[in-house]
Specification:
With 144 residues, the protein is mainly α. 89% of the residues lie in helices and 0% in strands. The protein has one domain: Hemerythrin-like (Four Helix Bundle (Hemerythrin (Met), subunit A), Up-down Bundle).
Length: 144
């Protein structure tokens, strides 16, 4: 996931670069298309992992993803119709959304997975210790 998050941030940085270069109007549609396609790819992966892990906030998280892709799609549709879309508005939306989403929502999921895996490892170690103890007791009792 981290590599995918980095790619999303690279796409936002591409938008910053074209705004600074003064060519955002020419490339905004291309960047929005790539961002829309990549977020859909990323969200599918992330949501699949959430389902596998049994994330209790799965539905709410998916709703956030849907809201983001809907907004990017709206920008893209406007551009494809030849309408004017402010690159700065797109950038402001993306920057706020991605930072807030990654730092808050995705980190919450990461903490859930870490806790779940730590608990599973602890339970596996306890089971192994109990099994070893039982084997030692059985061995001792069979030698009596």
């Amino acid at each position: 996931m981290d590599d995918q998050h980095k790619r999303l941030i690279q796409l936002v940085n591409s938008l910053v670069s074209v705004i600074r270069a003064g060519v955002a109007e020419d490339l905004l549609g291309e960047i929005c298309r790539e961002l829309y396609d990549y977020t859909n790819y990323h969200f599918r992966d992330e949501e699949s992992l959430m389902q596998e892990e049994g994330y209790p906030e799965f539905e709410a998280h998916c709703q956030l993803h849907a809201e983001m892709t809907t907004t990017v799609k709206e920008y893209l549709d406007e551009l494809e119709k030849g309408k004017q879309v402010s690159p700065n508005d797109v950038l402001e939306f993306l920057a706020k959304w991605l930072v807030k989403h990654i730092l808050k929502q995705d980190m919450k999921f990461a903490a859930f997975v870490k806790e779940k895996r730590t608990k599973a490892q602890r339970e596996a170690a306890e089971t192994a210790a109990a099994t070893e103890t039982q084997q030692e007791v059985d061995k001792w009792l069979s030698n009596k």
